[in-house]
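Researcher: Next entry in the queue.
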Amino acid sequence: MYICIQNVQYVRSMIRSSRILMVTAALLAIISDVAAQSRSQARVAQIDSVLAARYSHTPYDTNYVIRPEGKLTLRLRLNQTGNDFHAKGTINGINSKADLSTSHKTTVSIGASYLGVSGALAINPSKIFGHYKDYELNFNYYSSKFSLDFSYQRSESLAGDIDRSDGGQQLESGDIKLKVVNMSGYYTFNHRRFSYPAVFTQSYIQRKSAGSWLVGISYQGGSIETTEALKLKNPNAPDTRIYIGHVGIGGGYGYNWVIGRKWLIHFSMLPTFVVYNRNNFTVNGERKQAERIRHNMIFNERAAIVYNFSPRYFAGSTLVMSNSIFDDDAVVVNQNKWRIRAFFGFRL
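Model: Structure for this entry, 348 residues:
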């Protein structure tokens, strides 16, 4: 009997010990979770503090350009882009002239910026429903001193007319494929008073009118060539390839005009002189090469209008264009790449 009582007491002691261990483990887990949450909150607070310090530090003269109030900016954008090509050349005594255009790409995007860190989601309705099969990448960077517009386009929607001295031809979507890169980079001299971000990203507010001289570089490169689909449809169609590759250097001017503290109108132009090219025109294996050094032009234009309803709400529209005029005895190539954007946003 004594042994049984001792066994029962031992079991009860073990149960109490196990309960104490379980409660202790649960408390330790809770303490660990609280500590982890505290560390995460401290880390988030530290990151937020760093971003806030970076955001509040402005490289501008605050009499002309200031940061808007609020940490978060939300934007709704409607974008449309297009590309037009015009080319001429003479091979084996046959003159050829091409006037071609891609399908217009239309996207709707929702973007957010928190203390200068931005992200966006873009949707192309035509691509979702299978009406637009081209691919296009646009990247834009605007800071107080440097700005960059970059685009890469791969398209088989290029269509238009090719007129030849031995007959004309109507080209439809799928007959020609296009791969092209357009790039223009700017440096702003009066970067203390003139702001590109105030116009194109609304991350600053231009308070007074100001302008600046600009210097920059332009590049256009890529190819246009007939496809196998065209050969299957028309075996007599000439095998045509236009190659573009030219670099330009130049300078220009930009101006931000502030009207009544609510309207901001912007225009800038950067003409560049082509200092090197690799342009050529090939028909059925016969190639015409442009002179390597040929002084032609690439024009880069930007225009915009922004209206600030209040310090919180704003809307506007922007236009960015790149136009080349390349004229050579062997090859003439003109390209007009453009992007139009309408937007509405508010700050929190």
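Model: Helices lie at 2-56, 125-128, 197-200, 228-233.
Researcher: Noted, moving on.
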